[in-house]
Specification:
This protein has about 425 residues and is of the alpha+beta class. It contains 12 helices and 20 strands. The protein is globular and about 85 Å long. The two termini are about 15 Å apart. It is a peripheral membrane protein.
Length: about 425
């Protein structure tokens, strides 16, 4: 029996739209196509023009489709961490007042109960990550289905994003003629691919050096625990080069790419770099140290601001240190500068898969691997979060959220028993079958 399936990821970035097509077979992901297109309609990680962004996405999809010989309609999409809010999720439900075998519907019911809490009107839940269950007081149950019990308790983590960001992501994917199958927070996707199991469990900081912004995410106990967003990225590095050297932005990008170094001490010592200066017929020569000083000044400011946020939660104590990824992570000297400013051990992650050996493809690959490893409980949690509000469970006061703000659940209406829970899980995966 052929159990292969196709997963297509879409990374909506400020600098580029990136598409990764993977063939999943025997739990292995084989990359069969990639597509990249220069971004339009983006500003600092956020969509500002839906039509322009959709055009860029379509171009990237077309390239990936041609390379993989795949008709791409369904995609999983990364969500930015801008404006992310994190909540605890907790609920407890009685299983019809009698011992019974716990099934998908019971799990869905207790998860739904944990989501019934008040949010500010501008936010919307996007992800629910299960942590553990308890059955009749027996704690630390990973999967309660098949067990016998009277009372089921659930603990998890809820993530919410501004509605405007979610609306624009969904609309731009739709405008590009695609079906959005699954939304995944970008830091979770990056952690999936850039960190090993120990780093995800014991705690590590992932810094994504994007073109429009830089994000620092704390991963601990396999959960996203904290994010800090700096509104500056690689594009401003090029802007600084352009302004200081009086050269065009295109030339500045080339200088950054071919000669850029974030470590002044180990830059191109003694070597001169030709620069096309606006209004002058002949190129001007600058030293490698001078170019590095321009670059490092901006990056040092970014790292220092992130350090203040990370120090506030004592992230420097995490044993995993810092992992750098994202497009700017390829720059020479970036690891040395980050380690000097952040004062923790630092390393750079670059995907090893053929065709993806650049840190800018880390999120796209992470989206594929994250989707590949989704289990039944993950899919039930996703379905719960994405139900219409009117369908969410209202249970007795034995169930409430542990996060703030919170509301007590006073209604007695039982959630409709979903006879199609298993079918929904089956349908999710069937969308990816080739």
């Amino acid at each position: 029996m052929d159990d292969s399936r196709i997963i297509v990821s879409l990374d909506i970035g400020t600098t580029a739209m990136k598409v990764v097509v993977a063939n999943i077979q025997n739990s292995q992901a084989n990359i069969i196509g990639i597509g990249s297109a220069h971004s339009q309609g983006m500003d600092r990680g956020v969509i500002v023009d839906i039509d322009q962004a959709a055009t860029a996405i379509s171009e990237a999809i077309k390239k990936a489709s041609s390379q993989s010989n795949t008709d791409i309609k369904d995609v999983v999409v990364g969500l930015p961490a801008s404006g992310l809010q994190i909540f605890k999720a907790h609920a407890m439900v009685a299983l019809n007042g009698q011992s019974k075998e716990i099934n998908n519907d019971d799990v869905q019911e207790v998860m739904s109960a944990s989501v019934v809490q008040t949010l500010p009107p501008e936010l919307e839940f996007v992800t629910l990550l299960p942590s553990s269950f308890s059955v009749d007081g027996f704690t630390n149950v990973n999967d309660p289905r098949g067990m016998i019990g009277n009372r089921l308790e659930f603990n998890g983590v809820l993530y919410a994003l501004p509605k405007s960001i979610l609306h624009n992501v969904k609309r731009v994917v739709q405008r590009a003629g695609l079906n959005l199958i699954h939304e995944i927070l970008a830091p979770l996707a990056l952690a999936k691919v850039a960190l090993n199991k120990g780093e995800r469990d014991f705690g590590t900081v992932v810094i994504d050096l994007g073109g429009g912004q830089t994000s620092a995410s704390v991963i601990h106990d396999n959960k996203l625990k904290f994010t800090a967003i700096d509104p500056e990225g690689g594009n401003l590095v090029a802007h600084d080069i352009s302004v200081v050297l009086n050269t065009t932005l295109d030339n500045a990008e080339k200088l950054k790419h071919y000669y850029g170094n974030a470590d002044v001490q180990h830059s191109l010592s003694g070597e001169t770099i030709p620069v096309e200066v606006v209004g002058q017929e002949q190129n001007q020569n600058i030293s490698g140290e001078y170019l590095a000083s321009i670059i490092s000044a901006r990056l040092q400011q970014i790292f220092e601001r992130l350090k203040r946020s990370l120090d506030h939660i004592k992230a420097q104590d995490l044993p995993g240190g810092v992992i750098l990824t994202g497009g700017l992570a390829e720059m020479s000297g970036i690891k040395a500068l980050a380690q000097q400013v952040l004062q923790v051990k630092t390393k750079t992650f670059i995907p090893e898969q053929m065709g993806l050996r650049h840190p800018s493809f880390a999120e796209g690959l992470g989206l594929v691997l994250y989707t590949k490893d989704l289990n039944d409980l993950d899919l039930i949690a996703y379905d719960v979060v994405h139900e219409p509000v009117s369908k969410k469970t209202r249970v007795t006061s034995s169930s409430r959220s542990d996060s703030s703000p919170r509301t007590e659940n006073s209604g007695k209406e039982k959630p409709p028993k979903s006879i199609s829970t298993g079918e929904k899980i089956k349908n999710f995966w069937s969308r990816f079958f080739d």
